[in-house]
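Hi there, hope your week has been kind to you so far. No rush at all, and the record is pasted right below.
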Amino acid sequence: METRQLQVRFGSVDMVKGISLSIVTHEVLAIIGPSNSGKTSFLRSLNRMNEKIPGFAMTGKVFLDGEDIYSPRVEVEQLRRRVGMVFAMPVVLPMSIYENVVYGLRLKGRISKQDLVDTVERVLSDAYLWEEVKDRLHHPALTLSGGQQQRLCIARTLALSPEVILFDEPCASLDPVATAKVEEAIIRLKEKYTVVLVTNNTRQAARVGDRISFFLMGKLIETGSSTTIFTAPSHPQTEAYITGKFG
């Protein structure tokens, strides 16, 4: 994916200010920065989730495989299958673990029972959840722990075979053990998918990010490899943030 001079406004407030950024296939791009830096607004622009918010306006371009995703030719529902999103708080459906995973597939149309079964095992494995739930797939999803529910949401997203997965603070409500499992899943996912992670946890960004983008007050300050950003950033504002001088 690529953004060119992306600007996002809600009413009179500019949340994203002319950001141009390339997202490389099969990488984890971690976006860091203090609150109100435009990180989530930028992320939600990548699969057109800002459009229903009152006062939303956008200029610039967002490309997926060279196609402008805001073109009238692009169907939003199809786009969101290609660019899935996992939110900060896990939202599981009031049904079984199995039915949560296959819910989106059933909406797509007629799929054989065996294909559904195979998909459930594959995506739960990719989300690091299969071994924990394989013997209770037909139990209510709401009986899972918070960390398990978040990994179930990841599996539900994977079931639609996206190309890109967007994570918006996926560990914000999780304890350290659950966070570690989600991070393991994210690292593994880049083998098959492209991942964009918004996080306020700089240590998490260092652990899972291949590249890091630092946002401040709606602007992209710099992007670089994880090693470079955390050991030799180019901008003093980046160094001040990662060393805890503000945030």
About this structure: Strands lie at 2-10, 13-22, 28-32, 56-64, 67-68, 83-86, 164-168, 194-198, 211-216, 219-225. The chain is about 35% helix and 25% strand.
